[in-house]
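User: What would this chain look like folded?
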Amino acid sequence: MLEVIYQDQHLIAINKPAGWLVHRSWLDRHETRFVMQTVRDQIGQHVFPVHRLDKPTSGALLMALSSEVACLLAQQFEHHTIEKKYHAIVRGYVNQADIINYALTEEKDKIADKYTSKISQPQPSITHYSPLAKVECPIEIGRYPTSRFSLLALRPITGRKHQLRRHMAHIRHPIIGDTTYGDLRQNRGVSHHFASSRLMLHASYLSFKHPMTGDKLQLIAKSDDAWMHLLSQFGWLGIVPELERQHLSMV
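Assistant: Here's the prediction, encoded as structure tokens.
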């Protein structure tokens, strides 16, 4: 059963687990777990997607309970009036807050876009980031005798595909566990020394105007056991208390 973080007669938000597809896709034919179908069966009602999270990303996922509400929410996403916040653990020390303003070209899928000849143009892409904590561990990964990591809050202004993962790789602070844009050596080292192999990117916060009532909603998705496990090992418990669960089943 998926964790519901908000529900009323118009919309529902769940805490998406890492490793789940939002909806069924022929590009991943062997996958058996899908958020939309599971939520539909869980509440006994059809749901309408209004945005998506990558399969390895966890956190707040918003869905509408009617096509009308889905359209209104989609407009808010399109006009960038929905505030989104993520948390990530990245390689290296990030010492100060900054803005990444780096255009991204739409990535083509090797299968779905195999016969597409149109060349995509770079699209404006903006991400705000700020460091929350950093740690140096006496563990050799790569050519250095110690390893450094930072905990970041990320706020994407635009919503390009894989934007946060690509932007963090662009500034040479790839997100831990990112098998596409990340540092393979770092990923293997963290998996071996800290028993953590998932993408350390969590959609922690959504703030938006309710499309029917006009009320402001602020939704928080708590971190999972894998996040809590790594936060504990890095000595970061208490840094973002609103995301932490009371009990650790992996520590």
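Strands lie at 3-7, 11-16, 48-49, 58-64, 83-91, 98-101, 126-137, 147-156, 201-209, 216-220. If you want, I can go into more detail on any region.
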